[in-house]
Amino acid sequence: MAEEVKLFRTWSSPYALRIVWALKLKGIEYETIFEDLTNKSPSLLQYNPTHGKVPVLVRDGKPVCESLVILEYVDEIWKHNPLLPQDPYEKSMARFWANFGDDKLMKSIWQLFIAHEKDQDVAAVAALENLKIVEEQLKGKKFFQGETIGYLDLAFGWIANLVSILEEIMSLKLVDGERFPHLSSWIQHFIDAPVIRDCWPPRDKMIIKFQVMRENYLAAATPK
Amino acid sequence: MAGEEVILLSVYPSMFSMRVRIALAEKGVKYELKEEDLTNKSLLLLEMNPVHKKVPVLIHNGKPILESLIIVQYIDEVWHDKNPLEPSDPYERAQARFWADFIDKKVFDPARGIWATKGEEQEAAKKEFIEILKILEGELGEKPYFGGETFGLVDVALIPLYSWFYAFETCGNFKIESQCPKLVAWAKFCMQRESVSQSLSDPHSVYDTVLFLKKMFGIE
């Protein structure tokens, strides 16, 4: 059955990477459309009129938006190499932790990243607490759901790349092997996985991009 | 199902708790309702939701399920033979999940702003709130439910908000129906379902809670 699958993404979006990985894990062929979010294409605005964001997966002309929603859709359409657990309780836990990753962990790390020096200590406490919670989840496991990469690894995948980039810019080590042995080990397994390995955006470009973002945030924030 | 133990940790005026109660009622699930006092959280709540310490929590045969929409989806999957809430088609299901996620991301901050702020901040919250409701009206279109002919996930996600409309209107001094008539019509239609009318908190009780919260937070 000839299917037309397109993925709207940017070169740097960690959310879009989730879908790149998922499609690769499922062996699905698709067309990539790179967007410039400062100059959105009419197609993107047509397919995601509500948010105008990436990623958007379009299958046979029908768009699906929001990366975690797309992950579940991909898993339901292409049932081989399942990403989500089958058991309803395990599935609900996977969804819970994915939400935690986006709503709490990513937000707290970002808050630390854009904090003024005087606010860094407080921001760091929250980020470290949330990292510790994730560390606990990885005890005794190679990947979040066991021996193979699944939905939750893809949801947390941004940790394996983006965190070290933010750390370099901040000159601050968050995820060190001593405090976070399981998380550090998971990062290594994840980045070594063949499916994940070749998808990262260019590191030097990422550093420049996030450095500029940080400078803009620090300049815009009115010091009290 | 014999030998099922279902407990819901809930707080009366919480819209998130209402979502779960609606879902359980749609499926005809017998459960024990435990009201939590959020100023004095029970050991059970702290044990079952150590990460967020929030309600609602569904405890099914001793195992906790957290986050209202995740709970609703869980209920839909486990008690799948009655009144399905998620569409069966994967694409339609993805659309429903998108809109449920939209509601979670967009509605509650401006909603809170309406009762928890005043002056310019409150006006901005009211404006944003109506804008979001109008987007949802657009998505509803001419359908009886967000799910089409059947009551579904998005309806469950949004309808508890209706029980707070009286509180919003009184605090914000405005009428939601005059700006979003279609949405209010949809809400009244949903209220005809027993699962909804039984699960939504009484608007005046909600308003009393809001007044209490305002006092507690020293607002106005």
TrEMBL record, chain A:
Its EC number is 2.5.1.18. It is an enzyme of class 2 (transferase). GO terms for biological process: glutathione metabolic process. One of its GO terms (molecular function) is glutathione transferase activity. Residues 87-210 form the GST C-terminal domain. Pfam families: GST_C (PF00043), GST_N (PF02798). It catalyses: RX + glutathione = an S-substituted glutathione + a halide anion + H(+). Residues 3-82 form the GST N-terminal domain. The keyword Metal-binding does not apply. One of its GO terms (cellular component) is cytoplasm. Keywords: Transferase. Belongs to the GST superfamily. HSP26 family. This is Probable glutathione S-transferase.
From TrEMBL, chain B:
GO terms for biological process: glutathione metabolic process. InterPro entries: Glutathione-S-Trfase_C-like (IPR010987), Glutathione-S-Trfase_C_sf (IPR036282), Glutathione_S-Trfase (IPR040079), Glutathione_S-Trfase_N (IPR004045), GST_C (IPR004046), GST_C_Tau (IPR045074), Omega/Tau-like (IPR045073), Thioredoxin-like_sf (IPR036249). Coiled coil: none annotated. Residues 89-217 form the GST C-terminal domain. SUPFAM superfamilies: GST C-terminal domain-like, Thioredoxin-like. Keywords: Transferase. It comes from the Eukaryota. One of its GO terms (cellular component) is cytoplasm. It catalyses: RX + glutathione = an S-substituted glutathione + a halide anion + H(+). Residues 4-83 form the GST N-terminal domain. One of its GO terms (molecular function) is glutathione transferase activity. It holds the Pfam family GST_N. Its EC number is 2.5.1.18. It is an enzyme of class 2 (transferase). Belongs to the GST superfamily. PANTHER family: GLUTATHIONE S-TRANSFERASE U26 (PTHR11260:SF773), GLUTATHIONE S-TRANSFERASE, GST, SUPERFAMILY, GST DOMAIN CONTAINING (PTHR11260). This is glutathione transferase. It comes from Coffea arabica. The gene is LOC113702351.
